[in-house]
Design goal:
This protein is mainly alpha-helical. The chain contains three helices and no strands. Helix 1 packs parallel to helix 3 and helix 2 runs antiparallel to helix 3. The model has no long low-confidence stretch (mean pLDDT about 90).
Length: about 100
């Protein structure tokens, strides 16, 4: 895999955005379920959110491993945007989990 190819890097960036966006959406849906006192639904949604974010992390790891192995990775604004998405979305799930714990108090 040569990641100097801009098209391949863009595909990876879009996959990262898709998985992290899915994780974010599921976390917000879990918060909505908490507000309705649907805690078992919330738990399931948080699990799905974590799984989606895990897939996003795997995609990000592909880039890190490629660069660590000496492959040139094409950096463009879309990849920067994808990384920003992932970073922000990774913070939403743990906060939703904390909210769930507080809801049980």
């Amino acid at each position: 895999m040569t990641l100097a190819n801009n098209t391949e890097t863009q595909d990876i960036a879009m996959t990262l955005i898709a998985y992290s966006g899915e994780g974010r959406t599921l976390a917000f849906n879990a918060l909505d379920a908490m507000h309705r006192d649907a805690f078992s639904e919330s738990k399931m949604l948080l699990k799905q959110s974590s799984e989606a974010l895990g897939k996003a992390h795997d995609v990000q790891t592909q880039l890190l491993v490629a660069e660590a192995n000496g492959q040139q990775v094409s950096i463009d604004i879309l990849l920067i945007h994808a990384q920003d998405h992932f970073m922000v979305d990774c913070k939403i799930n743990p906060n939703a989990v904390r909210t769930k714990k507080i809801s049980f108090l």
